């Protein structure tokens, strides 16, 4: 085929696929549908009264403030409606993802014409009154958003923050073999990093077990105020790019409506047939393969069908069509006239009946029932969600004879639990991660489900590759993509877990923010059924970035999460392996949360047997009598911690203190559920002040060793009685190439520093404490020297267990069994 | 050319460019250089003693803990050393960016062989003692990092968090017309979103005024534990991908050293000549164009030249070569033997002389002086930094007759200042942003420097496009890319500013984190000269996301920044336009900081004339007597704010209070410099407790209206005297489609809520206050109703100015002129 080289979006259709599948009459019908849809989009932006222009347009009919975006609407509408033809023809199971920013007018108009919008929101009925409300409340306080927000029927993707349409689409079709996600990608969005790499998702899509994504890259040429890159490179480069990404791009370019209708209809049909053909071939043969999946490049003018110019300024086909296309009809009567003329050209008189209802021939183009894309239950994932089949987490308990004497990897143990969840849920659960699952010691999962890989296979893969075309683990070195997949997967009714190094999870701060916001809104929307929680497991934690150095030290993701709605976010820092099991079991069963679990992957001390762990995690925070010597009352000091490494150091600090002050009344408090610390008015998990005092007292020094930044504990506890007694240690920016010990010492979260903190804060020890203080300092220096000599932490620190024999005599006698 | 289709990295060289530029003798020399470099890389990972294997290798010579990564080293070394030939031949100005994670052994070995490392760190001398230290301290506590950290000579790019090598490289060559950034991109890194879109940077590079980036995509095939996508797609797809991105890819593939030396030498030379040719053509003609710039795809085995197998497991050419290639030589004597054999195959006996110095023929391959890539001053940007030529910011003052009676856009005004900075610094300053510069009301800058655009041009661009091939404004819809460009630009000695919508700046949380860490480390490194600060201007703030809705509401970036080192981060929230000018002037002149400035773009009240603004910004926080009625002592309440919108509401709340309680002693405190709030032990800007008390008292209720999350103020002030009196209002996750007023009301940061807060906290007003309280509630409800009716905030709120005539009589008399 000779390449058509024009980059201008104007003229008769130029398309890769030829064909005229539509009759003249059909062209006319689609033209009507397009007009009605564009009319609705403009109405949303402009009109508060006179919704069908039954009287001449006056400025009093206009909204006082014009808000909303027209630019991407026509091309999205065009795509949506022509796909409807194929849904009807082939009885397709499909839904629509609107990638371009502020794409709501496009999808709202379709949902309204399908009748879904009025079914979901009866007051926005298909008549003049309903239409007026529909228009008025668009981009209006408390009303309808200008993005495809959770209130939008059929949406799982808001498109507020750009970049995630393709990864969301893929997430939704994994394990949904009959589903097609028709995904319009904006050429602005396409410039973002997350979108640019998400095209590679095809290397993880299996045509037997998964559905298909049909992307339509809409080159309307402009962003807010700039041309787009992809609209200004040669046809050859553009085509090469998508072939390079592994797609077969089909071009549909132009603005002449009649020929464009034919071209789009023919191209979409060709793509659907190709998708179905590849799926059939793979499914019939049982042999998966990676075809070059079809995608469409739809080049149309921005604000297609708007006036080409307003005065001397280009509108259609320029960035001025991005938002409100004609900005001043209220003050410029010529512009008001132009607007009216434009709107009337969409023929509202003809296309809506006397009552204001769309005429039957429009409705006839829409599919029925749940085949209407805005009614597809997959986009209200809670409706189709099946609970996970869960093994009994108690069966994976780490067994030990005595608390705090056994070292083992909580993560490695938990991997067996995860493995069996995978085995029990072969179509309903996936594990996601950026190439770190094995490094995070979760490799046992591969026994139940290998890593999905649709790229080429080499001989070496047979020996430890753990790759398979049909697998359960999704790994790509793009936190953005795996997070996007997980979000799409969960929002369409399935379950999953993302595992990541703690320090690099900041890469997806903004994505997690947006998901939290999505879930929070969903809580307010009656018809949105609850979806599985988004579970994020952070490991390879900041305290064990052994020698990786400063760039790998950042525990701040917890703050990002804690800033989101208390209705949505949950943060757990299990101190040991049995607590990790209990917490994970809870998270996997929960709905509509974003759960963040922080647990290191290295060997750590195990403290609680399974029953004690369940009890502790259920409470979320509690005194550990075994590690306390205050017999439940009037402690001299409260040692507290949150996080596994923090806990070990806190307990070792108690050990040190008791060596020197055997009669010391120490209370140890462990926190698993971070939001227990906050007042109940701020988070539903918050404990009452009474409970707080029963744990921490109102007048005792508290040495709180925390996994993340110390001020996070202050922020959570500043309203607590006796909050001035809380002395928090945590991570601060003082990094280096460090051993774990050195890192804790620099941050004063090591046992020696904590013990010194405790002495310094117990007034009655000020005199007695000097010798002990010095002994701790000496021991700290000794340990440092050893570490600097060998490059490793001294074994008596790394392998420290509790209790050390023969130590703290009086105190030991007081020990209460847990 | 027939396409070579093998994806296996083994065998004789397969290359696009043919040729044999090297003599047999040269091949031998480069082979030696390669061997010496690989030997050094292994030595760093394994040896603490016996650095040149002058005696048989024993386990006692091994480091106790083996850390470091070999996988990407050989191919990076190979690239680096063959480029040296061209530096010498053509006297090139070039430096090296190491993209693959943990790439330090590659660059350290080169710096050591060039002699630069020993010049910078004399104790790591070019002899046995120095070598032993060099080896020992690699990945050792307090020692040499396993990434190209700031301590690494010649590095501006650490490669800890992956994804930014290409955007950093482009940033460094903008306005550096003679510079070539030789940039190795890992195939793991290439999967990240930021990297995937950064390839498009060519659409912003002008061959006349800018230098060139020569990317070498190293397909070593594996990440930590997975194959890489780009190594497992067909040659056709891979080639198409880079053509699509706008590059001309040249392939060099194989593992046979002799033929690979020839192929790489020929290919690099071809690329350099092509780069120079394009530059010459453009410069001679004065006509810029976008060539298809050359790039190289270097496909080699991971851990190239490592043993192919260890026992039955693949090592070379598999992911097992990623990190420490042979993991257990200390406990497995066969493996110790294998390691020794492997290391001796690199012939350390021959390649280092008796003293341990590299033999002269190795040194002879390196360029001299600053032409050595690890000595290029561009990578120590402070050395080449020229101060900005600054216009006098006072000349841009917003003039007004009376404080708080004029509404204007601080941002639009500041744009004139920015415009003139651009004009005065045509080669030394650029403005960066993700397609929002115009929307952010900074459009005036285009008068001095247009937007760089090397894509196709259309007719429409002439009418408001503001595009040019040589411009000063860099806009791409990728926060990642523009931030990466800015970082590269600043780190190589220039100046810049990023402007962004506040809510979406979280997209680059992790990048800013990493830059803060980089700068912090630089402060500790004597030879690193100071670079210009990284300036981030946040606007389109969370409080004015008019109708954009919930997804556009997130003020949390300030917390991300505040968590970084106090030596590096600065946060300013100027209350008005003259303060914005003063703050921006300060930021643009500063060095080695990350400055974040938050200022809305809409029209706002102007409070301070230029002199007062300078004084206020210099102090960073202060009482505004004009808006206070306490005559400087014993206030009944302190109303405080930080942020422009917050300030307006706080002042309006004072107005409301005074209407009802004309004798109220109100003190108003404004905070510009956020870190003034924190104790000086925590940040150098922190004020003393004495100053704190002089502003806030220790016993008066404080109603603090804050731009971001309220707990941030608590976190900053929890150590302050009387901190229990601080009542903070700020943003919380309660979003919706809102008018600005409604958003503040939901968050209780509006004037009515603040006035009610004040009443509720002034004990002596408990009885007198009931009527006023009710009046405020009524007014609030009325204002809401109006807004819900019209979709707009009532004009008496948006246009509220101070003082309203005839109000608060007694209080007005007390006003002190500022």
Automatic annotation (TrEMBL), chains A, B:
InterPro entries from the UniProt entry: THDP-binding (IPR029061), Transketo_C/PFOR_II (IPR009014), Xul5P/Fru6P_PKetolase (IPR005593), Xul5P/Fru6P_PKetolase_C (IPR018969), Xul5P/Fru6P_PKetolase_CS (IPR019790), Xul5P/Fru6P_PKetolase_N (IPR018970), Xul5P/Fru6P_PKetolase_ThDP_BS (IPR019789)
Domain Xylulose 5-phosphate/Fructose 6-phosphate phosphoketolase N-terminal: 22-383
Region (Disordered): 1-21
Pfam family, one: XFP_N
Highest taxon listed in the record's lineage: Eukaryota
Keywords, comma-separated and alphabetical: Lyase, Thiamine pyrophosphate
Cofactors demanded by this protein: thiamine diphosphate
GO BP: carbohydrate metabolic process
Chain segments annotated as transmembrane: none
Keyword Ribosomal protein: no
Keyword presence, Lyase: yes
GO-annotated molecular function: aldehyde-lyase activity
Domain Xylulose 5-phosphate/Fructose 6-phosphate phosphoketolase C-terminal, residue spans: 601-802
Family label: Belongs to the XFP family.
PANTHER family in alphabetical order: PHOSPHOKETOLASE-RELATED
Protein name: Phosphoketolase
Lineage, opening ranks: Eukaryota, Fungi, Dikarya, Ascomycota, Pezizomycotina
